Amino acid sequence: MNNITKVLWICLFFAGNMFAQQEKGIFGPTNWLNYWTEFKSATKDYGEPNKILTGDITEDTKLNKRDIYLLVGNVFVKDGATLTIEPGTVIIGDFETKASLTITRGSKIIADGYETDPIVFTSEKISKRPGDWGGITILGNAPSNKFGNGSVAQYYSNLDPASYASANFGGNIVDDNSGILRYVRIEYAGNRLRNIGYTNGLLLAGVGSETIFENVMASYCAGDSFKAWGGAPHLKKMVSYRASGNDYKFNFGAQAIIENSVAIRSPFISNSEVARSLQVKSYNNIQEVDFSKKNTFVAAKNLTFVTESDDIKADIQKGLVNEAVYVGENTSLDLNKSVISGFNPAVIFQNTIRINQESLDKIKFSEMYFNNCNGNIFIENNSNNEDLENWYGNRAFFNVYSEGDDSETFIDSKNEKKPDFRLRINKIMATNIDSDLDRD
């Protein structure tokens, strides 16, 4: 091969590799976290509420940007009503009553904000803390794998028995439509409940595929930022920031798609439960589900999971960092073109999963970028992961392994106001090219 041909081949390889790598993790021609997100919300002053939102909403209602609303108690949108929220509207959750907003089956929420004028749900307190209020719940008519229909009644403080029926979810309408959440922020939700744990930033139960979720940020949630029980939700450009619980949790037969989304964790923020960036399960107790129905399946693409740390190795050694992904038995996960950076380890499988081709064909990790993790993929409570390393380390999966500082790995992860967690392309390319050369 002459020199000109060599140079041409290297240039083609370089250009092709750049194209292939530029969409690992969250991506976009610009930083789509700009304008609508808020990473310093503790100091944000949204003003004083001048209207109260309480009780049941049984007819079409519109919330206006010119007003600031105080959400009091358990508010249910029901009887087929639609709650429309103007861009820029602020809804403040009452601390004393642990306020919550629920969209019941057959009703809708149209919270369609703008990039420069997002809708905000937040705490009423001056010194805001995770768990200041109850969060948002959307209930739909899509299927789950539970026997009969399900209920989320346990997630409410002081729920009136007359409202128990309003907490039911599930049906057989896969493409059910519960409305729109777009350019929405949910801050400081997830109050603690006795014997249950925590409520969530956004709980989706039986929510159908026609419901739109795009550019939704849940920050400083005491429970899980985003939780889906059953249904067929499609999530795009979601942001979970410093959750005490899980960032994204799918259970009870959810048939979910999540793409171009990010979870940013802190080693110093957690509740009493083991929290991960992504948890995929089909049930909590095997007796509660119907195996004639579909178990949980999650198709995930272009996700970025990162632990913010000044010394990730020290924080891992101190036991402050958990795994990024947990996969339960009888589930399917297809995780593609995603970044897992700074976890202990990257992935754990439930110990009841049998390591054979049938199981591993249902749990896919391809074109991944594993960075600064204390190990890659393991079975729960088992330090010997040779079989899993051999399987997922096969060249056919195009997975990449590296140890790089966040400042080198991401474009601008240290920016406190406008962080950019897209990958630095030249860093990833160098990792791939070096590893190819080492093998030759």
From TrEMBL:
Keywords: Signal
Signal sequence, renumbered to the chain: 1-20
Presence of keyword Signal: yes
Protein name from the UniProt record: Right handed beta helix domain-containing protein
Species this protein is from: Neotamlana sargassicola
